[in-house]
Amino acid sequence: MCLSLLALQDTSLYLSPESTMSDSPLPFTAGVNTVEEQRARWERKRSRTAKELLETEHKYLGQLDLVVTFFVTILKAKGTLKPAVLETIFGPLESVYLASQVLSFHLERGNLGLGLENLCQKLELYGHYSENLEQANKTLKEQLKKNKSFQRFKKLQESRPQFQGRKLEDLLPLPLQRLHQYKHFLRDLLENTSPDNTEYQKLAKAVKCVSEVSRWVQDIIRNRENSLQLLRVQKLLKGQKTKVLAPGRWYIREGWLLVVPSKGEELKRRMFFLFSDIFIATKPCHPLHLLNSNKFTCQAVYSLQECTVDKVFGHTQSQGGLLSLSFPHKTLLLMSSDQEDINDWYQSLTAAIRQLKV
Questions:
Q1: Residue 60 C-alpha from the chain's centroid
Q2: Which residues contact 91 (CB under 8 A, 6 or more apart)?
Q3: Tell me: the pLDDT tens digits for 22-47?
Q4: DSSP per residue over 317-339, as a string?
């Protein structure tokens, strides 16, 4: 509908009022040409994207081939690593490699739809590969420390000219990078494919499949990053009394704030850690302490379940602001001289509390 309307508007620029009122077929002919030109533009963009997809798939396949040929295959034959260790480091990489071979085969023959059907059937491999990657990197580091034979083997393989200075560690994340590229290539192809094209439905299905697996991978990455943050904070706290590591807990932010005492005492500078369900107040350990000079002592752990937050001042463009955090048996007055910082704390706290109540 939009194309036809655009076409009629364009032709009216070249026709006199009389001709537009007559039975002349010119507007219809021009409209058809405009639609055909648009379709031709779509096809050119689609062809360019399909060509780029094939070229980058060849490059990706070549990089996977380095790992499979010079590491996986030879290590299996030599027995330098135990089968379980080999499986942990490389995961389903061989299956990912075979899936790329099949996709390249179909793309080379112009069978885009068939190639994407096969890709969709194998996309779960990318999710499983992502789940394994953290343990893969950990095991690789362990083997490089204690297995001198593997250490020498790795160094020798990476020195081959085919690797062009790249390390095994650089090549292992490639499938996840490629998954991200697939998402963009397939979306571009879908946008430049007419709905009446025989491959449109296959493209639409492929876009959906890649998007779902991409979300799966992103969730894995977010969970991994969150676990690292929880572990980092746990190590920052003196002793093991305060348990930061807990299922379902999410790290949000941390920072210094001034605690305003209820009586006329001096302001106290404290470090606070905000999580999805708790708010931890800490103070730094003594800087001369032999073991804990860089750590914090936990002073209180507040549950956000029954917390309300109010901005006492800091609504206008003033210097800093003051927050009031009310708990069943305690009220905290927290101040910062940085207005942006106090606003960020207010937003983070209110969002966390709102999410808990939902």
A1: 20
A2: 128, 129, 132, 133, 136
A3: 344 444 444 556 878 877 888 899 89
A4: S-S-EEEEEEETTEEEEEEES-H
